[in-house]
Write a structure and sequence with these properties.
The complex is a heterotrimer of chains A (334), B (535) and C (343).
Chain A: H1 2-40, H2 47-71, H3 80-101, H4 106-133, H5 139-158, H6 168-176, E1 178-179, E2 182-183, H7 184-202, H8 204-214, H9 216-221, H10 226-252, H11 263-274, H12 285-304, H13 309-333
Antiparallel strand pairs in A: 1-2
Helix pairs in contact in A: 1-12, 2-7, 2-10, 2-11, 2-12, 3-4, 3-5, 3-10, 3-11, 4-5, 4-10, 6-10, 7-8, 8-10, 11-12, 11-13
Chain B: H1 5-11, E1 22-33, E2 36-47, E3 51-55, H2 62-69, E4 77-82, E5 85-86, H3 92-97, E6 100-103, H4 115-119, E7 126-127, E8 130-131, H5 133-147, H6 162-174, E9 180-184, H7 192-207, E10 211-215, H8 219-225, E11 228-233, E12 236-242, H9 248-256, H10 259-263, E13 274-283, E14 291-296, E15 300-304, H11 311-318, E16 324-331, E17 334-335, H12 341-347, E18 349-352, H13 356-360, H14 367-372, E19 382-383, E20 386-387, H15 389-402, H16 419-432, E21 437-441, H17 449-464, E22 468-472, H18 476-482, E23 485-490, E24 493-499, H19 505-518
Parallel strand pairs in B: 3-10, 3-11, 6-9, 9-10, 15-22, 15-23, 18-21, 21-22
Antiparallel strand pairs in B: 1-2, 1-4, 4-5, 7-8, 11-12, 13-14, 13-16, 16-17, 19-20, 23-24
Helix pairs in contact in B: 15-16
Chain C: H1 10-26, H2 29-43, H3 50-75, H4 83-104, H5 109-136, H6 142-161, H7 171-178, E1 181-182, E2 185-186, H8 187-205, H9 207-217, H10 219-224, H11 229-255, H12 266-276, H13 288-307, H14 312-342
Antiparallel strand pairs in C: 1-2
Helix pairs in contact in C: 2-13, 3-8, 3-11, 3-12, 3-13, 4-5, 4-6, 4-11, 5-6, 5-11, 7-11, 8-9, 9-11, 12-13, 12-14
The chains are: A mainly alpha (334), B alpha/beta (535), C mainly alpha (343).
């Protein structure tokens, strides 16, 4: 009788350690990693660089949050990256076109640019969402399809070239501007994160997404409108991608048909590293933000440590696989 | 069917030369699952050339025991002797290689492959991994003909009926050098003619020294083929008896034990107005045909039937989960037109699935969210899209306290709970909104006795509040002891409505067999082979 | 699976079902292919030009080989997103090894070619092995694993070349192999036919094919029946990787240089070819001859769009739509047969 009890106690401590690592492991890893980079290159920990990391994180955090919303429902969005490119090019075209036509109408041009971006986000999201939830096409195929569709659109409307002369007021608004001393991208990212956090925790829609991802059949039995909410999840994802695309466009000052190149991979990596489970039902804005911070700090550190960009790509691939493996272990703990 | 039986028999090795003694000997086998002690110190033995029947209620541990023997689960404790040698850490594959062939109710077939391909899966006739298709197909035909089954080896398994899939499964088990055959309710979906063929086959195998473990609920066939019977109850072996030395009544008493009086609460039924009335319901799948029944407030309406008779699909259809082809459903006197879970919940009907992991719970989410899941459209939980988390927390905490969930916390993930507590969480959904009609589908399957009792008590409370409860269960004592009226379903149809003193085991079982004789005029009433009756 | 087919009435639906089965067996693909070819022959004289036909055959050969590898992975219920990266990596590694060997000893041409091919095939083998091992042993989702290895392989390819094409392969490798015409047809045609026959035999006539299908159809059943599921899962991914490498060798030999950007759209097209050929994304179902047909179909379609001067960007859009539509239709048909079966 005592032997099982002892074993249970052993499992208990093991579980406590595992539980701690599941919760704070990433923060520990982050600190260790930064310390490691700091030994190679002390500049990593300089205030300037830390601020830089925070700024860069805000972009990936928006994309990771977008990805998190659909991963939560057991899906994912491969089209995120090319959706970003399409939005960037289209918004830039609209703004430059309107300003060229009538320079006086700058505010309207900016508004129209933003509306174009959101409109494209909604359209792409609806396409993905309807294919997945109504036509029951697997998320992988759907978003692979829309990946190509968006890529085609982005390169066609821009003719494969960057769209220059985006109004600098736009860049001031969404990139170089500050609110109460905080850089605009950081403000936007914080607003997005808080918004999604509130959505997941305080709205029926957000709650339903967690439950649908947690067990789609149970959600159906509980009378939740799964198809509608699932479609909306993809819309939210693409709209957030569009917001991120505007931020990036403001940063580069031009509409770029290749802007979203690495965004899909990075966003999935950040979300998964942050602890969003690919089996659905587990995820938060916090996880997405933390994952984004980790990915950013990793590439920032590697950059400062003068690690070749190609090697960075290799390391990112390894980190993704490792993160998924950790996710599997974590599910074992649970 | 078995005219040229020699061929087949000669293909099976002769085990008469096996050393005498037991083929299988289990001592002190225990197996624990989270929250349930599925097997508690069970001894079991099987001799060469005998049919040993396992008898017991659902959840008594029969299926755990055969899974231990088949190598699917390894026991936590106990000795496993097979052919005189101790075996540890058995895998399903090793078990098969050693001649243990299980035929489960959940089939181990690949749906998109043909019957022939399935029969030989894992032991193809092949040279340098090149398939000898001709040899396999002729062997497959031979075996199928030998068994007397009406099967086309070239058909894909996915296109077969459940009965035919069952036959494939049996044929597959017999294709190897089988020494120990496990049959888990093999006749549940077979016709009578097919059953007779199966019994003849069992006799031949027995004559060859094969040991057979046979799980069944059906008294008739148990008496027909059993040499010995072991009765399991609540994970413990109650007794092993010679089949010819025990009467049906004694057997049922052994199965149910004295616990009935202890376990089942005294329910006061006060039938009031009819809340649910189903008339001539036929499902698109045909698994329920022309069924009528009604349920009244203040009483438990039981629906009994064998596995696969359509009783579960019946209430799933009422809740809008399975498409209806014909018939009407009247709720509170009004005919229902929109069949979907959301409308049903709004109308005050809630369905509680039997498979809680697959259909009931989001395991990764907290208890709170799982309880309030079906009530998020109510003003008590959300104002429009905005959740009222404080109110939610309070309401759910109250429900959890009422259900006596232990520990009475609402934030841990449901995945951490035991079977009984998980079921309470699912049931909590019925308390989170104003539900008048409760559709319970196998509410106590896989949960321990204590939790069962609490669930029965909960039903009692619900009745007192004026609810109508429909209890669908394969566990006969449960239906018999809790229900005010019992409907019996058999082969997609409602065959009886029992009330008052009519509600007893014999009456229900009689329905199964009476029906079989009546509704199957097309089936040959072939005489039972002489060898099939067992001394 | 067990929930299917309770109390079906096969007699009534027999005729319709037989017709449906026949249609499902052959599918609309051959008809579609013939219509496409007839239209092109009638209205586009350039289509039948020698140069164009060779071009189509070369392209479809490459796609057929990648797609048959992709099919194996789809049949076991997975994906391989890394085939594109494997093609790039193989190309670079092969070219580099050949160039280096040739520089070291300019006379040992056969040696250099053999070493280059071996190194190239090793790329596919290793990537496939890693993919398979992660999926089978660590039980990581194939999507994430191959996304990860794809990133890694691309990174290695770029690292080796800095994005610059690798020249210096032996002339004979390019002239007598890559651009060779055997018996009036481009060499890759023969290679792809050989591979198709090989995969067909494996799929239909060997236990390997059977087990791969069984694993995709019902892992549990395969495991209980004594199939070493891990081994065959890994095998499927490894074969897929090696077939991608083989494709890369053909392409590299034709181009005459190793390029880290060579794969183009082959990854997407290989999945598209599989999906259009009716390979189920849930595993267990897929036939290599249909995959070959759909690869041919896609190649001709792309060619037709090129001849009609449709912008390559718009072709990408078109390809995306086709893939989603193919799966949507398949899904619809499946739902209908399921409903029919249940009633």
């Amino acid at each position: 009788m005592s032997e099982p009890a002892a074993r249970a106690a052993g499992v208990g401590t093991g579980r406590a350690v595992a539980g701690f690592m599941a919760r704070y492991g990433l923060i520990v890893a982050l600190v260790v990693m930064e310390a490691g980079f700091a030994i190679v290159e002390p500049l990593v920990l300089s205030p300037g660089n830390l601020l830089n990391i925070v700024q860069q994180t805000s972009y990936i955090a928006v994309f990771a949050t977008a990805q998190m919303v659909v991963i939560l429902t057991r899906g994912f969005d491969l089209s995120l990256g090319t959706c970003v490119s399409t939005v960037s090019v289209a918004a830039a075209l609209v703004m430059t076109g309107m300003v060229a036509a009538n320079p006086a109408n700058l505010p309207l041009a900016l508004v129209m640019g933003v509306l174009t971006a959101l409109g494209i986000g909604i359209a792409v999201g609806l396409f993905n969402g309807i294919c997945i939830s109504v036509l029951r096409v697997n998320a992988f195929v759907t978003t692979l399809g829309s990946f190509n569709i968006c890529f085609g659109i982005a390169t066609t409307i821009s003719d494969g070239r960057p769209v220059f002369d985006v109004p600098k007021e736009f860049s001031e608004l969404m990139y170089s501007g500050t609110i109460l001393g905080v850089p605009a991208p950081v403000v936007i990212a914080i607003v997005v994160l808080i918004g999604i956090h509130l959505m997941l925790n305080w709205t029926v829609f957000g709650r339903s997404l967690c439950l649908i991802g947690g067990n789609p059949r149970a959600a159906a039995l509980a009378g939740l409108p799964s198809r509608r909410y699932l479609t909306m999840a993809y819309v939210v994802c693409s709209v957030l991608a569009a917001i991120g695309a505007l931020m990036l466009t403001a940063r580069t000052g031009s509409g770029e048909p290749n802007l979203g190149g690495n965004v899909t991979l990075q966003s999935i990596a950040a979300a998964v590293i942050g602890g969003v489970s690919l089996r659905g039902g587990v995820g938060s804005a916090y996880a997405a933000a933390l994952g984004a911070l980790f990915v950013t700090a990793l590439s920032n550190g590697m950059g400062l440590a003068r690690i070749d960009g190609y090697i960075q790509q290799i390391i990112l691939g390894c980190v993704i696989i490792a993160a998924i493996f950790v996710d599997r272990l974590r599910s074992g703990v649970r | 069917m078995a005219e040229d039986g020699r061929n087949f028999e000669s293909s099976l090795p002769d085990y008469m030369s096996e050393p005498s003694g037991n083929l299988l000997e289990l001592t002190g086998i225990s197996k624990r699952f989270p929250g349930v002690l599925a097997l508690d110190n069970v001894d079991f033995d099987l001799r060469h050339g005998e049919v040993h029947v396992l008898f017991g209620e659902n959840g008594a541990g029969k299926s755990t025991l055969i899974n231990v023997i088949a190598g699917t689960f390894s026991p936590d404790q106990g000795r496993f002797l097979y052919q005189g040698r101790e075996r540890r850490h058995l895998t399903p594959h090793q078990a098969r290689v050693m001649g243990i062939s299980p035929v489960f109710q959940e089939f181990s077939l690949v749906p998109e492959m043909t019957v022939g391909e399935n029969l030989f899966l894992g032991r193809e006739r092949a040279r340098f991994s090149f398939l000898n298709k001709r040899a396999m197909s002729s062997k497959a035909r031979e075996v199928i003909a030998e068994l007397g089954f009406n099967l086309d080896p070239a058909r894909k398994v996915v296109t077969l009926s459940r009965a035919h899939q069952q036959m494939v499964e049996i044929a597959k088990a017999l294709l190897t050098d089988v020494r120990l055959l496990i049959l888990d309710e093999p006749t549940a979906s077979l016709t009578e003619a097919e059953t007779i063929k199966l019994f003849a086959l069992i006799d031949r195998l027995r004559a060859q020294g094969v040991g057979i473990i046979y799980v069944s609920h059906r008294m008739g066939e148990i008496k027909q083929i059993a040499d010995r019977i072991s009765v399991l109850r609540d994970g413990r072996k109650i007794a092993t008896v010679m089949a010819d030395a025990i009467s049906d009544t004694e057997l049922v008493e052994l199965m149910a034990g004295r616990k009935i009086d202890v376990l089942f609460p005294q329910v006061d039924h006060r039938p009031a107005e009819t809340l649910l009335e189903v008339s001539n319901l036929t499902l698109a799948s045909g698994i329920v045909r022309d069924v009528s029944f009604h349920a009244r407030a203040g009483e438990i309406t039981g629906i009994a039937g064998l596995v696969g008779c359509g009783k579960s699909e019946l209430i799933r259809a009422v809740f809008g989960l399975v498409p209806i082809a014909a018939g009407t459903v009247r709720l509170f006197g009004k005919e229902t037109t929109s069949f979907d879970p959301a409308s049903m919940l709004r109308a005050g009907v809630c369905y509680f699935p039997s498979d809680r992991v697959a259909e009931g719970l989001a395991l990764a989410r907290p208890i709170r969210e799982n309880v309030s899941m079906a009530a998020l459209d109510l003003p008590g939980f959300a104002r429009g899209q905005l959740l009222r988390r404080n109110e939610e927390r309070q309401t759910v905490q109250d429900i959890v306290d009422r259900l006596r969930l232990r520990p009475a916390q609402i934030e841990p993930a449901v995945g951490r709970l035991s079977g009984g507590n998980r079921q309470k969480v699912v049931l909590g959904r019925g308390l989170a909104r104003d539900i008048k009609v409760f559709l319970f589908d196998e509410p106590t399957v896989g949960i321990d006795v204590g939790a069962k009792l609490e669930i029965y008590e909960l039903m009692k409370t619900l009745l007192e509040m004026g609810a109508a409860i429909i209890l669908v269960s394969s566990e006969l004592p449960e239906v018999l002891h809790l229900s005010n009226r019992v409907y019996v379903m058999h082969h997609a149809q409602m065959v009886a409505e029992l009330t008052g003193a009519q509600i007893n085991e014999q009456a229900v079982l009689a329905c199964f067999f009476r029906d079989e004789n009546q509704t199957a005029p097309a089936r040959q009433a072939a005489p039972v082979p002489a060898g099939a009756t067992v001394a | 699976m067990t929930s299917a087919a309770l109390g079906a009435s096969p007699a009534a639906k027999g005729g319709a079902a037989a017709l449906g089965r026949a249609l499902r067996h052959v599918g609309f693909l051959p008809a579609l292919l013939i219509v496409l070819i007839v239209l092109l022959v009638l209205f586009e004289p350039r289509f039948m030009g020698m140069f164009n036909v060779f071009n189509v055959l070369r392209n479809s050969s490459a796609l057929m080989i990648v797609a048959s590898g992709q099919m194996l992975v789809l049949v076991v219920g997975g994906f391989d997103l890394s085939v594109g990266a494997v093609i790039a990596l193989t190309s670079v590694v092969t070219a580099k090894v050949m160039a280096v060997m040739l520089e070291a000893s300019p006379d040992e041409i056969p040696m250099a070619i053999a070493a280059g091919i071996a190194a190239g095939m090793a790329c596919g083998f290793i990537t496939g092995l890693i993919n398979g091992a992660c999926v089978a042993l660590l039980r990581i989702s194939p999507f994430m694993v191959t996304l990860g290895t794809s990133s890694i392989a691309t990174g290695v390819a770029l690292l080796l070349t800095n994005g610059i094409p690798v020249y210096g392969m032996p002339d004979t490798f390019v002239k007598d192999f890559g651009r060779a015409i055997w018996f009036g047809l481009p060499m890759p045609v023969y290679v792809s036919l050989f591979i198709l026959v090989l995969v067909w035999v494996m799929q239909r006539q060997t236990t390997v094919g059977r087990y791969i299908h069984a694993i995709g159809g019902n892992v549990q059943a395969a495991m209980v029946s004594g199939v070493n599921t891990n081994f065959y899962l890994i095998l499927a991914y490894t074969l897929c990787g090696m077939l991608a490498s083989l494709t890369s060798l053909l392409l590299t030999a034709r181009l005459g240089s190793g390029q880290a950007t060579m794969s183009g759209n082959l990854m997407l097209e290989s999945i598209a070819a599989g999906v259009i050929a009716g390979v189920s994304l849930r595993g267990g179902v897929g036939r290599v001859e249909m995959v070959a047909l759909s690869a041919l179909f896609l190649s001709i379609l792309t060619n037709a769009m090129n001849l009609l001067k449709i912008n390559s960007k718009i072709q990408t859009i078109f390809m995306g739509v086709i893939v989603v539509a193919a799966v949507a239709l398949d899904q619809l048909a499946k739902r209908r047969t399921r409903d029919a079966r249940e009633s």
